[in-house]
Each structure stands twice: as C-alpha cells, then as structure tokens.
Design brief:
Helix content: 55-70%
Number of helices: 21
CATH topology of the largest domain: ABC transporter transmembrane region fold
Largest sheet: 6 strands, mixed
CATH superfamily of the largest domain: ABC transporter type 1, transmembrane domain
Membrane topology: Multi-pass membrane protein
Number of domains: 3
CATH architecture of the largest domain: Up-down Bundle
Number of strands: 12
Domain ABC transmembrane type-1: 59-340
Structural class: alpha/beta
Distance between the termini: 110 Å
InterPro entries: AAA+_ATPase (IPR003593), ABC1_TM_dom (IPR011527), ABC_transporter-like_ATP-bd (IPR003439), ABC_transporter-like_CS (IPR017871), Type_1_exporter (IPR039421)
Subcellular location: Membrane
GO molecular function: ATP binding
CATH class of the largest domain: Mainly Alpha
Strand order of the largest sheet: 6-9-10-3-11-12
Length: 617
C-alpha cells in the first residue's frame, strides 16, 4: 500500500525575522537607530507597488501553482512506472504513461518560461513607477535636503539601489513563492507515501534552520553596510570628478586617490564578507541534500527489503528529497538576495519619506504680474534651530521697482541667506518678506520664481547645445528670441565662431568654453527669461578685463528696468547701486548709497579704502 498518515506531523522551526531585526538593531545601537531596518514595513511598501499589476500578478501566481504541481507530478509518475511496469516487466500502458510524462515536463517548462516573462514585465513596471516617483520626489524636496547630502550618494539610491530592487523582483519573487509552494506540496505527498521516511527526511530541517539563522544574522548587517559603502564611494567619485580642476590645481591627486582607496577597500571588505558568509548557504544545503539522499537510500532499502514500501516509493522519495532541499536552498539563496534588495529599498524609501518642500497653502496667491517691489520687515532666520544663534536677525529694507540693491559684508555675514529667503529656497522664521505687497509665504513658489532670474558666480550649464542652454530661461522661446537674447548679452559673436554655432554641444561643466563665456550664456538665459527680479552673485569675478567689460555691458542691459539684488565682493562694481546694505554677523549695520556710506566713515568706508589700497599695491 502506498502512503500512510502521520499522527504527529513534524513542525519545522520558522526563522523569526523580527527577532533577527531586534538583534541587528541592538548591534547598531539599539532603539536610537531609525526604524528603516523594519523588513516587514519595507516589504509591505514594495508590495504596494507590485499590487498595481494585480491582474498580471494573479496570472503569474496561477502559472507558479501549475508549474509546482507539474514538478510534483513528474517524479510520482516515474515511481508509478517503476512499480507497475518496470518491476513487474509489464509493458502494456507504459507507452501511454511515458507520453503523459513527456507532456508533464513540457508543460512544466512552458509554465516556468511564461511566469518568468510576465514577472519581468511586472518587475519593470514596478521599478519604472518607483524610479519615476523617486525622481519626481527629488524635485519636490527643499534646497536644504541637497545642501546636506552628497549628490553621488543620492545618485547611488537613484541607480544602484533601485536596480538592486529590480533584479530581485525579476527573479526572486517567483522563486520564493514557487519554493514555498513546492516545499508544502512535497511534504504533503511525502507524508501520504510514507510518514516514517518523511519524518526521517525532515530530521535535517533543524540543521538547515540553525545554519540559515546563523548566516543571515551576519549577512543582514553586512549587506546593509555594503550598500552604505557603495553610496559613499559613489559620492566620493562624483565629488572628485566634479572638482577635478581643483584637484589638479592644488596637486591633490595623491590625496583623493588615498581617500578613494580607503573607501574602495571598505567596500571590498564588506562585499567580500557579505558574499563569503552568504556563500556558505548553498554549500550547507548541498551537504544536507547528500546526507538526506544517503539516509533515504539506506532506510528505504531496509523498508523495501521488509516489504513495507516499494522500490518506486524509494525512487519517488529520493527525487522528492532533492525537491525538498532544493526549495530550501533556493529560499536561502534568495533570502540573501532579498536582504540586499531590502537594504536598497529602505534607502530609496528613506528619500521618499523626506518631507517635501512645504506645500503652498490652498489659498496661496498666483502672482500674475510683478513690478518688483520687495520689502523685508523684521526678518529673522537660522539654518539650524538648535545652534542658539540667528544667521540673519531683524533685517529691514525696502527695494522699489527698478532699483539695484547691493549686499556687502564679510564671509558668513548673511548675504547669500537673504537671496535664499527672497527666492523662498528657505522660509523666514520671523518677520515678513513682501513682493508687491504680497507676503511671499502666501504666494505660490512657482509663480514667484517665474518672475526671477539668477546669474551666479559659478554658472551652471547642462549637457546639451548652446541653444538649449539659453532656451532653459524660457522653453517656449523661438530660435530668433534665443539669438536676440544672446546678442543683448554680447554672446552672439563668440557663439558664431564655433563650427556649429548655436547647435554646439557643451558638457555639464562647460568644457571647451571659458568662464567668461559661460557667464555670458547665463546672462543670455536670464535675458530670455525676462524677469522682474534679478539676482546677481558677483558675476564678473575671476574674469579678464575685456570679458568683464562685455559682461558689465550685458548686465547693464539685463538690469535696466528690473529690481536687482547684487552680492558684491568688489565694491567698485556697485558704486551706482541705489542702495548698499552692509551686513555683519547677520545684522544690517549700515545702508545708503555709495556717497552716503563714504561720508558716514563707517564699516563700508573702511572696506572701500582697504580695497583701494590693495588695488594700488
């Protein structure tokens, strides 16, 4: 008789993932660490993205069930063939059984191929959605978020971590579900065939569980450390590549290479130990698999000799024992892959959980027309709330439409901070900033910034053509308007010297063109934007005299009729400003025209005289 029922089925021990997380949290410093290490929360969030393809996912699960059933049916039919035909040497019906067996394995292969095909489609759609959401979210984050993080580390989350999730979804999800299903089905059939052999086979489970638990406790921390080290290395590479000119200028190649080597070694060590320890799992499974086969062959042979079971049952058990350990092996391997993917997913979700730039109030105003009237009333602001001091304190001034306001002061006085507040990259802690009488906190950011343009000391150009870079100021501008803006900025002549003119391609760092030419392109972009409020950060610094004259002429045309805020380092460039505001340690200590401030014989006069002496020397 084939099969009996086991009175007390063996209950194999489950891995307590929450306990592993608790142990991991203790090693990382206990409860003070962020809750990003919660696997279940991360898995639920990933499932939230997967569930958007419920129809296809249901089809995949159906195919997985079908392939698992067929995988169990194949060995069973082999055992039946041995007992009913081979052992008894009866050939009638054997051909039909073999034909069924061929179709079983054929349909099994087809179902496996189809489930992989559909799962890849689901995974790619899921990762596409996640990547899109992350990219869109990055554009909604406030400037302080980017100020405090390496861009390369963020790039690692956008690329490496999401690709890690993608690779896992492409294969691991199906394999984990199929392995669980195969495991349950295999044990059920084994119990039906021979409870005694089943019990003996399951004796290896505690060793498997213990080995997996010992290994995963260590690999969890290592995979997380590997992802962190990879992010740091990417950040260092991006920073070094962006600052290559400075590195070479100060001959610091050896220093950055040493720093890279330290980070690279750290990544190598964490990667080595993560992969080495996780590599113990398949080796352990192979040993246990061979041990299981030997036990079944030995005990099964004794039972067969005594007529308790048939040869076919031994064959079925030998195959099922392999199928029993294979899912455990697959689960162990995929568990480590899953660990790495969860570490990447957590890093992605950490960014997605960052608070977006404060959403405009529902009744926020839309600035349709702006004259350029800007007023500060008792404005106080600090970048860090717990520093105990304000970056700027009680700032008061009024810029009338068309006026030029210059900010002067030593480094750290608060000049750039005021620019950040005007543009709402940061919001003031106290006081009011008014544009045409409107409190800017009650105005939609986008509508406010549409009326602003920036020309900074370090001009940023995107990878693309010169025409595309200028058109960035107003995307719907015609080619004629782009060229007209370049002519007003004194940029047209040098652009036309390039073989491809306005279609000349430039890199992100503007390689192939000078600093002065980059400034002229930035001014062209600002002219095309046609703003009412203009912000200049010493756009003529580090420029040769002839180019400076061209830039000053272009800036003169750009500033005409616009309210302009100028951060000045060289005082001779702002003598014609309508107001000069002197900042020191975050306080507005003097204000007036150049002549008025010279007569006051205060801090500004001292700065101006010192610069005159330096120029003479």
């Amino acid at each position: 008789m084939i099969g009996q029922k086991l009175k007390e089925p063996f209950q194999h021990k489950k891995i307590d993932i929450n306990k592993i997380n608790e142990d991991q949290n203790e090693r990382n410093g206990g409860a003070n660490k962020p809750k990003a290490q919660n696997w279940w929360t991360t898995l639920k969030r990933v499932w939230g993205y997967l569930s958007q393809s419920k129809g296809r996912l249901s089809l995949v699960l159906l195919l997985v069930v079908m392939s698992s059933v067929l995988a169990l049916l194949g060995p069973f039919l082999v055992g039946v063939a041995i007992d009913n035909y081979v052992e008894s040497q009866i050939t009638d019906g054997l051909g039909y059984l073999l034909t069924v067996l061929v179709f079983v394995y054929l349909f099994h292969s087809m179902s496996v191929w189809l489930q992989n095909y559909w799962m890849i489609r689901i995974a790619q759609k899921t990762v596409f959605t996640l990547r899109t959401k992350l990219f869109n979210h990055l554009h909604k984050l406030p400037i302080p978020f980017f100020d405090k993080r390496q861009h390369g580390e963020l790039m690692s989350r956008m690329t490496n971590d999401i690709e890690n999730v993608s690779a896992t979804l492409n294969s691991s999800v199906i394999q984990i579900f199929a392995s669980l299903l195969t495991l349950v089905g295999t044990i059920s059939v084994m119990l039906w065939l021979s409870p005694l052999l089943t019990f003996i086979t399951l004796l290896i489970v505690p060793a498997m569980v213990f080995g997996m638990k010992w290994i995963t406790k260590r690999t969890s921390k290592l995979f997380k450390e590997q992802q962190r080290s990879l992010g740091e290395l990417n950040g260092h590479i991006q920073e070094t590549m962006s600052g290559q000119r400075i590195v070479k200028t100060f001959s610091q190649e050896e220093k950055v290479i040493r720093e890279f080597t330290v980070r690279n070694k750290q990544l190598k060590e964490t990667g080595f130990w993560a992969q080495t320890i996780s590599g113990f799992i398949p080796k352990l499974m192979n040993v246990l698999n061979n041990l299981s086969f030997a036990i079944i062959a030995g005990v099964g042979g004794i039972l067969a000799v005594n007529g308790i079971i048939t040869i076919g049952v031994i064959v079925i058990f030998a195959e099922y024992a392999r199928q029993f350990t294979r899912p455990l092996n697959d689960l162990a391997n995929q568990f480590n892959t899953l660990l790495s993917a969860i570490a990447g997913a957590e890093r992605v979700f950490n960014v997605l959980d960052e608070k977006e730039e404060r959403v405009d109030e529902g009744n926020a105003e839309e600035l349709i027309h702006v004259d350029g009237d800007v007023e500060f009333k008792g404005v106080t602001f600090s970048y860090e709330e717990d520093t105990g001091g304000d970056t700027v304190h009680d700032i008061n001034f009024h810029a009338y439409p068309g006026e030029t306001i210059a900010f002067v002061g030593p480094t750290g006085a608060g000049k750039t901070t005021l620019i950040n507040l005007i543009s709402r990259f940061y919001d003031a802690d106290n006081g009011s900033i008014l544009v045409d009488g409107h409190e800017i906190k009650e105005v939609k950011r986008e509508s406010l910034r549409k009326h602003m343009a920036f020309v900074l000391q370090d001009s940023f150009l995107f990878h693309g053509s010169i025409r595309e870079n200028i058109r960035y100021g107003r995307l719907n501008a015609t080619d004629e308007e782009v060229e007209a803006a370049a002519k007003q900025a004194n940029a047209h002549s040098f652009i036309m010297k390039f073989p491809n003119g306005y279609e000349t391609m430039i890199d992100q760092d503007g390689g192939g063109i000078s600093q002065g030419q980059k400034q002229l392109l930035s001014i062209s972009r600002a002219i095309l934007a046609n703003p009412k409020i203009l912000i200049l950060d010493e756009a003529t610094s580090s420029i040769d005299t002839i180019t400076e004259i061209k830039i000053q002429e272009a800036l003169g045309r750009l500033m005409k009729g616009r309210t302009s805020f100028v951060i000045a380092h060289r005082l001779n460039t702002i003598q014609k400003a309508d107001q000069i505001l002197i900042l020191k340690e975050g306080q507005l200590i003097e204000s007036g025209t150049h002549e008025e401030l010279i007569k006051q014989n205060g801090f500004y006069a001292e700065l101006y005289l010192n610069q005159l002496k330096e120029k003479v020397i």
